Amino acid sequence: MFDEISRSIDEFGNSLLGALNNVQNAFGRELSVAKPIKENVLQMIGNTPLIRLNQIGSHIPNVEIYLKAEFCNPTGSVKDRTALSMVVAAERRGELKPGGSIFQAGYNTTAISLAWIAALRQYKFKVFLAPDTEQEKIKELKSYGATVEVVQLAKGNWDDSLLENAKAAKDKDKNSVILNEFKDMANTNAHFLFTGPEIWRDLGGNVDAFVAGGGSGGTLSGVGRYLKSKKPSLRVIMGVSKNSRFIRKMVQGDSSIRLPESFDPKVTDQYIGVDRDEALRYQSELYQKEGIFAGLTTGTTLASAIHYAESLPTREDQKTPSYKIVVLSPDRL
Q: Rounded distance, CA 313 to CA 12, Å?
């Protein structure tokens, strides 16, 4: 009797191993659990998990909300994807060679990711900052290996002044690039090639809507373009603050506003503006109800996702497949 039980267990174990091998053959390097050993820390970028929310949004019948946890990237931000993609693209174009320099104008999360990646790939990284940049941000950049230059700005557009300084530095260093996520299509392509396919893969194609913030617009555009190529009926929603330039341009029609070149407005189906208090409330609830610590941008996109879900036709019939919404959580700060 025990021999028969042991034989059954062995047969079950062998069949399970066979199934796992088939999965690994099907997905290969794309499936992170199939290759837990990383050749270097850069391979930790991407393959972030989807976390189903169990409390927030539970008042909406037959709707499931998933958080794409980009705060699980090594520096805690989706910008690790953007930064690596831009660096690799510059290398492939021959603009950035071993020992070269990377310049950036202004502080943002991408600067942190670039500083980290530049150190790993042995590039020099320098960022030009405005005089009112917080000291904590300057310390953080330096801790990642960045050289920081605070620029005394002339009257006018600060962004333009910082960029002029970066251009002047590039003119003196022939083996250098200025990386700008707002213009570099490597930003958008990173999310078309990786972030979007991860979402599609992990939900087995059962995704009905995608919600992301603004910023450079690259994440929303790349992911949205991929998901719509797989499922044209899928809805892409931008969730931003009510005074966002995307709201002012695309909803209120302010023609004086220039949007980033990395943003494709044809991908977005709807813009939802959220005020700061509501974003803070959802950020707090995310920790208190779901145990997830994420940044204020996540509070904004999550609030927008709830507004969108509440606007859907009531889905009381439990036989109807649940409506699945993926909300991108860009960072932990």
A: 45
Tokens of 187: 């930003």
Q: DSSP secondary-structure letter at 107?
A: -
Would you give the DSSP letter of residue 331?
B
List 272's β-bridge partners, or say none.
239
Distance separating alpha carbons of residues 289 and 33, to the nearest angstrom: 28
CB atoms within 10 A of CB 48: 24
Tokens representing 132 are 């009112």
| pLDDT given at position 311 | 96
**What does the alpha-carbon distance between residue 124 and residue 145 come to, in Å, rounded to a whole number?**
9
What's the half-sphere exposure (Cβ side, CA atoms, 13 Å) at 272? Answer: 26
List the alpha helices (DSSP H) in the chain: 2-27, 79-92, 109-120, 135-143, 158-172, 185-190, 196-202, 218-230, 245-246, 276-290, 296-310
Contacts of 46 (CB under 8 A, 6+ apart): 73, 81, 194, 195, 198
Within 8 A by CB and 6+ apart from 138, the residues are 129, 148, 150
Closest CA relative to residue 117, chosen from 86, 92, 148: 86
Please give the single-letter amino acid code of residue 196.
G
Helix, strand, coil proportions of the chain in percent (round to 5)?
45, 15, 35
Beta strand pairing status for 147-150 and 176-178?
A: unpaired
Query: Left, alpha or beta for 232 (phi > 0: left; psi -120 to 50: alpha)?
Result: alpha
pLDDT band (50, 70, 90) for residue 17: very low
> DSSP character for 263?
-
3-class SS at 288? helix
For residue 51, give the nearest of 34, 70, 36 by alpha carbon.
70
Q: Report CA-CA distances (Å) from 148 to 84, 108, 119, 166.
A: 20, 13, 14, 12
Instruction: Give the 3-state secondary structure of residue 123.
Output: coil
Q: How confident is the model at residue 161 (pLDDT cuts 50, 70, 90)?
A: confident
Coil, strand or helix: which one is 210? Answer: strand
Supply the pLDDT for residue 160: 78
Residue 104 near residue 116 (C-beta atoms within 8 A): no
